[in-house]
Design goal:
This protein is 18% helix and 28% strand. It has helices spanning 10-19, 97-108; strands at 33-35, 37-38, 48-49, 52-54, 57-61, 67-71, 79-86, 92-96. By secondary structure, it is an alpha+beta fold.
């Protein structure tokens, strides 16, 4: 497998996020964050990132003035996220998995410092 296409390891994600200018929790001013992990016995590798997905939601406004929406329950078009949780109060931050993957791979190739948006 091409290393640039391999899934990120938990360590790569942790290293990247720790390297950012960490913020206090906006809810409780806590400083301790934890990543959700997939520690299930049937996980492909131990301690892999516990990715979550957010469904795509489409809203439509009809001529009669009503608003309706549809939610895509499958994986197509969903947003894969990494979950960081405040250890004091449970506040959750979500990070776009593929954006972080792109930055980590670019940093590994020497193309950016991780704070720029590589193209």
């Amino acid at each position: 497998m091409n290393p640039s296409q391999a899934p990120l390891t938990l360590q790569e994600i942790d290293d990247f996020l720790v390297g950012l200018d960490k913020r206090k929790c906006p809810w409780c001013d806590g400083h301790h964050w934890g990543l959700h992990i997939d520690a299930a016995a049937d996980a492909p590798t131990p301690q892999q990132p516990g990715l979550r997905s957010l469904p795509r939601i489409r809203l439509a406004h009809s001529d009669s003035g009503t608003l309706s929406g549809t939610i895509a329950m499958g994986t197509e078009g969903s947003l894969m996220v990494i979950v960081a949780e405040c250890q004091a109060c449970g506040y959750i931050y979500l990070f776009n998995y593929f954006a972080i993957m792109k930055k980590v791979r670019a940093m590994a190739a020497g193309k950016t410092d991780g704070n720029d948006s590589p193209n």
